[in-house]
Write a structure and sequence with these properties.
By secondary structure, the protein is of the alpha+beta class. It folds into 2 domains: 203 residues, Cytochrome Bc1 Complex, Chain A, domain 1; 187 residues, 2-Layer Sandwich (Cytochrome Bc1 Complex, Chain A, domain 1). Helices cover 44% and strands 16% of the residues. The protein contains 18 helices and 11 strands. The strands form 2 sheets. It has a 6-stranded mixed sheet, sandwiched between helices. The protein has a 5-stranded mixed sheet with strand order 7-11-8-10-9, sandwiched between helices. Strand 1 and strand 2 form a beta hairpin. Helix 2 crosses helix 5, helix 2 crosses helix 8 and helix 13 packs antiparallel against helix 18. The protein starts with 26 loop residues before the first helix and ends in a 5-residue tail after the last strand.
């Protein structure tokens, strides 16, 4: 479980003066060394040291030099996701993502081209954005940039056989991700109930009748509306020279004309207030009950990143790892559950809930678990975390960010996600400092804010023979 998935960070290098034998130095020299030590501590190495440029057609270009290995990650972010889909064609952003791998006449098979270069490619569609990522040797960056520019400018669905094949693949993906998993339909229902007037209530992949209604022209129209350079960000991270990449980006993308500006319209509140939704779903697909609890959570736009980071640390203390507070209590001490998981999506344009998922031990009744859970969560509300729990969780969050910052693919994916939700490069650079600055008092306050109220939704997946 990753409670904090929006940010990147790396340990800042701090230069310490060698004070061995300093007692032999003059008082003035000692003071000078101490001052230099403090100054050095303030001059932390930037997290990314990113360099940016905006082309005349509106394309934002971000370059991060990282010369550890001769690899490069290239990402193109389009500011369009399932929330921007037409009401009668939900999921078409995801369908366009599938079709975009067929590129253009010059690059009709993107995956094959990148593989030939010794690299790999992937893509992701969320509610708020669509991103395409290539990882390859650094000497292949020229071809990757030309490929991305060509399909941005010249994408065309000229083969109906390919279109029908991809539409079938999307349909099968819905079955795999939504309809076949035990909790799939129940979660789809509760997501819609939590956000009835907001597009977060929709499935990213769309419904069956939407998928069957897709046409080649509808996909092309969606591409023409959203896939312009002025609605995109290009990020290059790896063993490259920033000045050279800016020139290459200008040569590859500079001639693409900007598209008419599009404005994203959203309602203010993504989650209903004052109403608790309860869904009980009985199936023979599970042998023990599974429970999902949804709580309203702070959002970076309204509450600030510091509050969101404090909640991430608090959730880590409660739910992350075998030594977390609730795992020790509910798994080891009480034997009520197999495990507990928690997700908090900071990577969202609008607010989303904290979701706690629990797998009960066979034979354990939901009522017994819920009473024990409420008792323990209210202890947290009343008394907060133990300082040792807080310190462990804080170190854990920082360590996770250090790990992400050493992996080119994860670094570019997290960076694209940050930019997609409206954060700036400066926000990303300050992640480490903000995590370090979070206090126990801040964390306890935000945990109290979230868990003092009842969950806004409860989903129970029950075995048919034992449902009560």
């Amino acid at each position: 479980m990753k409670t904090l998935s929006v940010v990147l960070c790396c340990m800042s290098a701090v230069v310490f003066c060698n004070l061995e034998g300093a007692e032999k130095l003059s008082k003035g020299t000692k003071l000078m060394l101490e001052r230099n030590k403090k100054d050095a501590a303030k001059k932390k190495k930037p997290l990314l040291n990113a360099q940016t440029k905006v082309l005349k057609n509106g394309l934002h270009v971000v370059v991060v030099e990282d010369h550890q290995v001769p690899r490069v990650s290239v990402g193109v972010l389009y500011h369009v996701g399932s929330c921007d889909d037409p009401e009668n064609l939900l999921g078409i952003s995801h369908m366009l993502e599938h079709m975009f791998f067929h590129g253009s006449k010059k690059y009709p098979n993107v995956s094959e081209t990148i593989s030939t270069l010794g690299g790999s490619t992937n893509a992701f569609t969320s509610e708020d954005c669509t991103m395409y990522i290539e990882d390859c040797p650094s000497d292949a960056v020229d071809v990757v940039l030309l490929l991305e520019a060509d399909r941005m400018a010249n994408f065309f669905l000229h083969d109906d056989v390919v279109f029908q094949k991809e539409r079938k693949a999307v349909f099968e993906e819905r079955l795999m991700r939504v309809e076949n998993p035990p909790l799939g339909i129940a979660n789809e229902y509760i997501t819609n109930a939590l956000s009835p007037q907001h597009p977060y209530g929709r499935e990213i992949i769309g419904m069956r009748h939407h998928i069957l209604a897709y046409s080649r022209e509808a996909v092309m129209e969606h591409y023409r509306k959203w896939y312009g350079p002025n609605n995109a960000t290009l990020v290059v991270i790896g063993d490259v020279n920033a000045a050279e990449i800016f020139k290459k980006a200008e040569n590859a993308f500079g001639g693409i004309k900007a598209r008419p500006a599009v404005r994203r319209e959203r309602v203010q509140n993504a989650i209903t207030e004052g109403i608790q939704h309860t869904v009980q779903y009985c199936t023979d697909k599970v042998e023990s009950e599974k429970v999902s609890l949804f709580y309203q959570a702070p959002h970076h736009k309204a509450d600030g990143l510091d509050t969101c980071y404090a909640l991430c640390i608090g959730l880590d203390a409660l739910f992350e790892g075998v030594v977390c507070k609730f795992c020790r209590h509910f798994v080891d001490k009480k034997g009520l559950v197999f495990g507990m998981d928690c997700s908090y999506d900071v990577e969202s344009w609008d607010p989303k809930p904290v979701v706690i998922q629990v797998s009960l031990v066979p034979g354990v009744q939901y009522k017994k678990f819920s009473q024990e859970f409420e008792k323990e969560i209210q202890k947290v509300v009343a008394h907060g975390l133990d300082p040792r729990e807080f310190d462990r969780a804080k170190k854990s969050c920082i360590t996770d960010m250090v790990h992400l910052a050493t992996d080119g693919h994860q670094k570019i994916r997290m960076m694209l996600a940050c930019l997609a939700l409206g954060l700036s490069i400066d926000d990303i650079e300050k992640t480490h400092d903000r995590l370090e600055a979070v206090t126990l008092e801040q964390t306890n306050a935000v945990l109290k804010r979230v868990f003092a109220k009842e969950p806004v939704a409860i989903v129970r997946l029950c075995p048919e023979a034992t449902a009560k």
